[in-house]
What does this fold into?
Amino acid sequence: MSLLDIRDLAVSYGGRPAVRGISFSVEPKEVVALVGESGSGKSTTAHAIMGLLPPGGTVDGGRILLGDADLTSWSSRRMESVRGTRIGLVPQDPANSLNPVKTIGAQIGEVFRLHGRGDRRTIRRRVVELLARVGLSDPETRARQYPHELSGGMRQRVLIAIAIALEPQLIIADEPTSALDVTVQRRILDLIDDLRAEFGTAVLLVTHDLGVAAARSDRLVVMKDGLVEEEGPTSAVIADPRAGYTARLLDDAPALSAREFRTAEPGGRGPAVVVRDLVKEFRTGRRPFRAVDGVSFEVAAGTTHALVGESGSGKTTTARMVARFAEPTSGTVEIPGAGPGRLFRRHVQLVYQNPYGSLDPRQSIAEIVEEPLRNFRLGDRAARRTRVTELLERVALPRDVAGRRPRELSGGQRQRVAIARALAAGPEVLVLDEAVSALDVTVQAQILDLLERLQRDLGLTYLFISHDLAVVRQISHTISVMNEGRIVESGTTRQVFTDPCHPYTRELLAAIPEPVR
Amino acid sequence: MNRPKTGLLVASLVLAVVALWALAPGLFTAHDPIAGVPAEKLQAPSARHLFGTDAVGRDLFARVVHGSVHSLSGAFVAVAVGLLLGTLLGLLAGSAGGPVDDAVMRFVDVLLSVPGLLLALTVIILLGPGTVNVAIAVGTGSVAAFARLARSEVVRVRRTDYVEAAFGSGGRYPVVLWRHVLPNSLGPVIALTALQFGMAILAISTLGFLGYGAEPPTPEWGLLIAEGRNYLATSWWLTTLPGAVVVAVVLAAGRISRSIGRSTA
Amino acid sequence: MARYLLRRTAQAAFVLWAAFTVAYVLLQLLPGDSILIKFQNPELGLSPRQIQEIRAYYGGDVSPLESYATTLLGFLRGGFGYSIDTGTPVVERLAEALPATAVLAGSGFLLAVLIAVVIAFAAGHSRTSWIRGALLAVPSLFVSVPVFWLGILLIQVFSFRLGLVPVIGGSALQQLVLPVLTLAVPIAAPIAQVLARSIDRVQAQAFVPVVAAKGASRWWILWRHVARNAALPALTVAGVTFGELIAGSVVTETVFGRNGIGRLTEQAVNAQDTPVMLAVVVLAAAVFVLVNFAVDVLFPVLDPRLRAVTG
It folds into this structure.
């Protein structure tokens, strides 16, 4: 008998179907990866299994069998006895998944208290043991600390400790590492693997990242629009996907499609951006904090240079100084051909990570794209309108979006609008700050294609900021790897990927899931 | 989806009717609000006298209808004072930042530290009682609320990516302020205006009740209730019905404020 | 922490001083000579010399700046000058009125918090949407009711119709019930609104399903996890509404014919008794500043995240 057997499960939110009759099972000790893009219904499925659908969500049909018990027929009181004891949850977002006003120890100990396991002293001892088991140093101190005193990776370890506290048969890991840096991601996934081996727990791994799924699961369940597209042993699905959608996912996932490295043709146009000894200090408290510490690099005209690093590496601060949204403490940014003052903005443009946040919600798409033209008084009203139409066409947006508002567009469409606006005044340098990080892989692939095409057609120079090595591998000609405010290694993309010199770069590369290497 | 909309409809209807009372009271009642018919004094509500009559035989409904103009115009003046002064202060503080921001916000702290009614009473000691003075007094009390909200909205919007992107598109400071910061900051301020309109009607009726507003024969709502107090034991309608009208108007203003707040959020 | 306390104390002192100054300018400087206005009345038949002496008694014959300084120093020493209306020291009148108002305002505030907590938590726990909607509509109704009318309505219903509370006489407790209820209703409304909204917001946070996944019941989550997180914004509002208690007592004491600070304020306004009014305004500001100071200091105790920032 399967540990977990889902049969024809259908879930809807206020009448709108999110999961439309899916079936799959999880055997004891097995890792099953539930893969899909946003809106595929994978997280809804996970929540339905726990009986924790958000308000408005209802199970419309089907059965969720845990052993031989059908959880869909259980009362909420009865479900409480299953949660924590037989099913554990490792949530998505470690930053917000712990109660900020309670100590770590209290929050782990709560699982034992809720299910009446042990007295006060036993619980305290078990908490410390668990903290040590998930690899946290100095567990006694950790137990007395509050969540904000721990890093993201440490918090995720605490959450894992909570999930395994009562040694459940099944752990549901809902995007357990998508909010974490790659090197931390790897260690957390290793920890889950270890614990699974030790306790014989089965894992349902919910993820959007096909790379993670491919590297960590025994079986894959691929979901799209609330339906299962394909299911099978992981290695078989990766090697020979039967569903067209799976094939496209595999193709679009930058980690899995090992394309040719991009190499710059020797154009001899000279550098478009020259950064020398850039330093940025922030004053917090008494000691100034160096976010960027002596960074130098050059970007050849018409090529893409990537700044890669984990959170806190200083890559975004560097980008903002290049785009003149932040003043360097010392050092220089030279951009040949860029005008002084406001004219600088005709030459250099910044594209943000979150396209929704960077578009004024009250403006129409046409107004947004037209704005730089109005600011620089480029052409009369009619000429500007023609230019807007041309720009929308260039970023492959349908003509009728012009009159719409940002909220009526999808994430990918919004990012296209942001790119169109950036191109409006005819710049030569684009600074792309995590510009594809918030998008699903298939959309991400389309935007990356668009960026490549624009670069070819318009001879643009890109400074591409990203934490995602796989994306960087695909788009950039040259790379600088940043860590703690410094560049630890730079070179052509091929050099950095095939022959990394610095140990940090090697660690980063080792952290990306298998097939890309 | 359906129920909240009914609420909004009823609220708009209430305000529309009361506004019509103020503009054209003759359409709603034929009775004289000032001259009474002594023979008909202290009658309970009936078809002839919808809200009953008072101690000198005046039709209470006529007095409520004719009184609406005092409450509404007073509330308009009060809200105008608060909205203009407060929003200007808030916009100034939020967009200028630095020492200007600090100075304005400390001033607002001071205004906030004195309860609205006491501030209003202070202004009344200064200016003397009277309808307009009461309105100004009430408006002064709401300056702080408008200023704080306007400032926090401007500060919030100024931090957004799209405002930075507007500068990035080559926008000059005044252009960005006008095109992006103002339109995106004003939604909550408009919602507060509707709310404060209701609160001003409350405050004006309170000051009228305490005797600092209109002079006695005037049918101001607060005053009506104050006059009805002497007949609590026998004539419940004299206090209950005018008060119910005040509650209805204030509730309606609050309901409209909430729907504005929701649609601009 | 010490530096934070110091800065916060300085700020509180500044607000208090500024409130005094604004009120002083409005009440003493701008209206001109309140003593002249009162005693020049020909009906009193006072000679100019007598008026001069009276002015000197009230300290009205010095330059505005000098008189400001004297008054400010007086306030710092706890002397608030003399009532123009009765000629007695303002301190005495305040001291006489304060206990009754303190009892009224204190009980009113406690009842308001109780009402607010019951409404907000009942709404937060309820899953039936119409019950929830009805509970959440209560605060909007509460803020829309004129306090004086509510008082009158309560007298009408409980004293005249039901005869539960005597209009005249009755024990001190009986006399307190209706005024406290009257005062509590408008104070409860904003606290309930903010608390309910903040409970909703906290319940939508990512840690709530994690607690549920441990096997906790809805009530356990609400009471042991959501409550403390949701308390912070409500505490701020409670601090702000504390100032409204004094304003509320003006109306409540007038309606119920009770003596206290509110009644004193009303008499001061009627008699243009500016020294008393000035003292009441400064007292209200002081209560407000102190309570909000306490709230700010309490914040880091409730929320460990704020300890690092303020330390």
Chain B has one domain: 53-264. Residues 53-264 of chain B form a domain with the MetI-like fold fold (CATH 1.10.3720.10). Chain B has a mean pLDDT of 82. Residues 233 and 239 of chain B are 11 Å apart (CA to CA).
